[in-house]
Amino acid sequence: MLTVERHEKILRLLLEKQTVSIQELLDETGSSESTIRRDLTELEQQKKLKRIHGGATRLQKKLEEPTLAEKTVKNIQEKKAIAERAAAFVEEGDCIFLDAGTTTLEMIPFLKNKKVAVVTNGLMNIGLLADLEIETHVVGGEVKAGTRAFVGRSAIQTLETFRFDKAFLGTNGVTKQDGCTTPDPQEAFIKEYAKLRSRQTYVVADHSKFGEVAFAKFAAIDEVTLITSSKVEEERDVRQMTNIEVVSL
Description:
alpha/beta
């Protein structure tokens, strides 16, 4: 099979399945493992797919945003481990911003018994924070249906009144060149606003976010501390550009 034919077949399989393993590609093409790995490297360099451990996945479209329900069931154990590490940076007496997102949501149980004040734009965060009797302030504004995040003018006006020791933000994409990105400019604006009003900003990101680029940038990676897991293959490259905390899995 010619290189062009293999590349076309790989991309067709990704359109059908979203993610494919190297073994599936070996079976479909009859090629050697070294050939398939080389093909995946070339296609990733052409920004046609994203390599993952043991295979490849389709790149997320810039405006594509999974719903909260879809994100909740994805990489859940990894997110919990990242959330626990992130919560360890919260100290007694801190005033923190807690972003809307599945990994930041997982941080809340680890804040139990810590005397902190939390400002959040995450609708799903409110009930959990209240159950743990954590001092909670909510920004107003429009609630996005998919992500359950408060956005808009009212949210920005509320954020104007706060200053934070630490901000914890989720992200849809992380790359060295494009930084931290998210599909919705309104959510990106909230994240950037919180970052600018915080002494220190942490971005929590499971391995699937690395190599992805969404529509709206809210931070360069050298402006934040990344908290991720040992599943991230780009760890060494990223470490040269910013602070990174890696949770072993």
